[in-house]
Amino acid sequence: MTAKLKPSPAPATAASPDWARVVSLVQCSRAMDALEETTLVPGKKIFYQFSARGHDMAQVLLGLHLTHPKDAICGYYRSRPILLSLGVALEDALGSAMGRAGGYSDGRDIGVVFNYPNAHGASALPMCGGVGAQYTPTAGYAQAIEYCRTVLGDASYDGAIGVVLGGDASVATNGFWSALTIATTLKLPMLFYVEDNAYGISVPGALQTPGANIAKNLANFSGLKIYDGDGTDPEQAAMLTREAVAHVRGRRGPALLRLTVPRLEGHSFQDTQAYKSKDTIEAEWTRDPLPKLKAHVVPSAMSEAEWDAIEAETKERVLRASQIADQRPVAEPSSVTRHVFDEGEMQTEGGLHNTGYMAPRVSDEAKPEGARINMITAIRRTLDHELSINPRVVVFGEDVGPKGGVHGVTLGMQEKHGAERVFDTSLSEEGIIGRAVGMAIAGLMPVPEIQFRKYAEPACEQISDCGSMRWRTNNRFAAPMVVRMPIGFFKCGDPWHSQTNEVQFVHTPGWRVAAPSNAEDAVGLLRTAMRGNDPVMFLEHRNMLDAASARRPYPGDAFALPFGKAKLTRTGDDITIVTWGAMVERCEAAAEGISADVIDLRTLAPWDRDAVLTSIKRTHRCLIVHEDLGTAGFGAEIAAVVADEAFLDLDAPVARVTMPDIPSPHHPDLMEWALPSVARIRAKIDQLLAF
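Request: output the structure for the sequence above.
Response:
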């Protein structure tokens, strides 16, 4: 499916680009690079600098095609030229590089790690610092384009596309291959734009993909149209870009456009390129697209004097913009603690609430209906209700479709709501969470499932990037979603299906974390999460999904619980026991005959410090019980807060009962020995009471 190139550049057509605009933008990019390298970096006004020389013309040619208001791009370090073509103000681009207030992040992120909520055209999705992390969110955005167009019937998405920019090194990443699978199997309107400069910092392209040509290697990849050519040849690059964009806009499936370009400077300002020979560097400069651009447009499209005038005018504009940017202050340091979570000030792009969604009224007062149901049924019923009343909710993951999930939670939901709204995914956790990010930015409420806690490890980069999005863009973007994830033991254990490690998500800024212990709380917390404006990690303990102790009557379709509000499941005066998840049942059993407060935290981010501290002021003793490992488990955080803020109220040391620092053993006898048992918990209670 590789596009055949003509032996010589095709003549200009009516569809040819506005070459004067191309010249102006490329000259602007060059002037910015030069000013940074000669003045701003040596003057210590910029701390990280990445030149786009060599990449600039091809990017500008692509950017000028992205005029649809629902288009979106996601790029990487050398993508400033395409941002300029989308309309980013020069003072914002330079001010961001200086880390000043305003711009992309108000100094919170590296200046080249950009985002651009664009009300007048294509937006630039929040870029990530990790190579390859841009691919799956773009696939998710492209899937949301199709969802909004077909399921929601929104004609404003007709013809919109998602474009992802990456270099030759990024094609070796998991994100690239996951996004490629998503885009081709679903026939998404997505363009993969690979700028091949033959090096990943110092590593040559031959070590990234066989033969150093990803386009050639993917020539027979089913469902993918390939375009491959010289990104320094103005007419050829323009033709290929035009055809690639037209292919994707025409809803003929995804395409990959590979353009070879030289990287005319080091990877960054600090990179001396000592790994390149003198001959290699000289050969790269012979491919500089700027002289080729000039030869192409002078004198056919403009005179030499007009070229010189554009060059001089852009240099002056860049200099003025740098002076404006330099006058911007550094953000108030204390402001960096803001916008980790939604504070009631709506982000510019992303999330349900930006679409005009108004959540129905809820109450934290349960109105029990019918017989007691298990947690599986409670979660299923809540998902079903939210799907029924909110067409922007989508549920997906491995085996969640016809099978109904490996735990049966989504059983029958695809049949009821359709395969566009409840669907299976390829086996890629990075792809599952990454595409959820793109969907959330596009205004859907994704509810992805990670089948078991341990399986989340490949997705941790996307989880981290999603959580930090609101903060690092200073509330310009957010990607609210609900990640459902079974955790913990069930009948037996093992290192692969029985992990908890909830503390990792608590330690990932921007994520709310719920850990319900019963069906009623699962309903209330899940409903709050699915109607909220922050990403939520919803942890479903496997042993509680069908446990008799976790069964409750369904609390009603209007029942929702606030995050950060613990529940006293037992009250007393002699000791405070703090726990969550499956350990609530065991702590209650261990406290039989004891005057004890048993506090089920229900959520770990945020957690109810006030409830714990208030109880300790009355009982003067504190025991923390959790299934996770003892070292650096979340109980250590609780213990530190208690020691910090309630030390004088204590009559005994703060104590913990946890797993030892080992993975979960498989045989039930070994597993039960490692888990906090009722007997171990009771022994520790007795020890504290006797202190």
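The two ends are 77 Å apart (CA to CA).
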